[in-house]
Amino acid sequence: MRWMWIDRIIELTPRQRLVAVKNVSMAEEHLHDHFGARGDRGAMPVMPACLIIEGMAQSAGILVGHAGGFAEKVILAKVSRAELHEDAVPGQTLRYTATVQNLDAAGAATAGVVELMDSGGPGGARVIGAIDLMFSHVDKNMAGTEFPEHNFVFSETFKTLLRTSGVEMPEGM
Amino acid sequence: MTRDDIFSKIRTVLVDALAVDDDDVTMESVLTTDLGAESIDFLDIVFKLEQEFGIKIDQGELFPDNVAQDPRYVQNGLVTAEGLATLRARMPHVNLDEFEKDPQITKIGTLFTVDTLVSFVEAKLRAK
């Protein structure tokens, strides 16, 4: 399973809202280098912020793709805003809530809230950031540039995630 | 709403969409060359204008759509007379007088100034 930065979709209201979670695990190899030990301190494994943005992009991208029956190639086109105020460390869970702000034939704008849940902490989820994104329906925006006919965005991996999360698949997928 | 009111709201939209300073946005600012707008920013601007002014903007209504790819409208990199007539009809908010003298398709982005947006929104609000 490659390049999946969410583990499960826990809520999907079509065309409106999607909530997904990502468990941060010490078994993820990149955490050992992010950040590795150096002379003045030991290792400091934290979830890279860029991959938190990717997690939100996958959450919001699935929401946008689902709205069009996964027929459109939904590409992340712009990170309008990304603010993160706290690190996520192994053993914690990130929760991404993506909301559609605008959606039309050319693309979509989404607003996102990032929360952190800590099973070892006081419980509940606390907001640690916001990530707003823009998506392009790439076939309709690249000045006639032709792309492969098959939908290379929503691959088998995405389908597996949708299936294991219990999301109903559009016909033909 | 006066043109000044519209301008003030559009300035907020552009500061937000293009990460520019308030002072950078004047009526004469060109969206691409002065404010750094790229293709996806145009969609962002459309979305934000819809939200800010409570209007609906169809694809191709504010910014041209499918003109550059149509051989009737563009030949050898220049917009044809038919292309110019189509642009004029589809986008009355754009002033084509200067562009017409040297209608290179690559320069079409420079037609869109803040003033263009103000005129467009003004017409949309009037038609509401």
What is the distance, rounded to the nearest whole angstrom, between the alpha carbons of the first and last residues of chain A?
A: 19 Å
The oligomerization state is: heterodimer
Q: In CATH, what is the homologous superfamily of the largest domain in chain B?
A: ACP-like
Give the CATH topology of chain A.
Thiol Ester Dehydrase, Chain A
What's the mean pLDDT score of chain A? 90
Would you give an account of this structure?
The complex is a heterodimer of chains A (173) and B (128). By secondary structure, chain A is an alpha+beta fold. Chain A has one domain: Hotdog Thioesterase (Thiol Ester Dehydrase, Chain A, Roll). Chain A is 16% helix and 35% strand. Chain A has two helices and six strands. With 128 residues, chain B is mostly helical. Chain B has two domains: 73 residues, Non-ribosomal Peptide Synthetase Peptidyl Carrier Protein, Chain A, CATH 1.10.1200; 47 residues, no CATH class. Chain B has a two-stranded antiparallel sheet with strand order 1-2. In chain B, α1 packs across α2 and α1 crosses α5. Classes of the chains: A alpha+beta (173), B mainly alpha (128). The interface between A and B is medium-sized, with 16 and 12 residues.
Summarize the structure.
The complex is a heterodimer of chains A (173) and B (128). Chain A is an alpha+beta fold and 173 residues long.
Give a quick set of tags describing it.
heterodimer, A: six-stranded antiparallel β-sheet, globular, B: 128 residues, mainly alpha, 2 domains, two-stranded antiparallel sheet, 5 helices, 2 strands, 3% strand
Helix and strand topology:
The complex is a heterodimer of chains A (173) and B (128).
Chain A: E1 8-13, E2 17-23, H1 49-67, E3 74-84, E4 92-103, E5 107-118, E6 125-137, H2 156-164
Antiparallel strand pairs in A: 1-2, 2-4, 3-6, 4-5, 5-6
Chain B: H1 3-18, H2 39-53, E1 74-75, E2 78-79, H3 81-90, H4 97-101, H5 114-127
Antiparallel strand pairs in B: 1-2
Helix pairs in contact in B: 1-2, 1-5
